[in-house]
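subagent[fold] <- orchestrator: predict structure for attached chain, return tokens only, no commentary.
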Amino acid sequence: MDEYDRKLLKAIQVDADQTVQQLADEIGLSATPTARRLKQLSEKGLIEKTVTLLNPSALGLNTTLFIFVRTNRHDEAWLKQFSEGVRRMPEVVEFYRMGGDIDYLLKIVLPEISAYDDVYKRLIAVAPLADVSAAFAMEAIKNTTELPLN
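subagent[fold] -> orchestrator:
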């Protein structure tokens, strides 16, 4: 990956809706090599997919919560059951298996904090859990999908 590839990846992270010509102008190449680079970056798996980011507040999703889950079970069958159940919950936008004191971390978005009770009840029905706690975000100080390309 050279400097043109880095510039191209940075540009599409900021705005993937640009034309090939706009991207070419931004990185200092002509359109044909820029298009070729985009294709190669996709084929190599550096570009996973192109999406549109929606505005949560405009959609009435004004509350972000982080759910901390602890479990006493760490076997493959339990993990499969829990993972599949959580993946079916549309409110969960991020889901991680953690190291340390917390076993799993979920990020959920909701219209308001009172909607968490329903999510909590569905979550504890998915699989046996030792502890579930939550914290809500008061303000998003930094929220980005851009990866560092240094």
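orchestrator: received. Logging for downstream: The chain has a mean pLDDT of 97. The radius of gyration is 20 Å.
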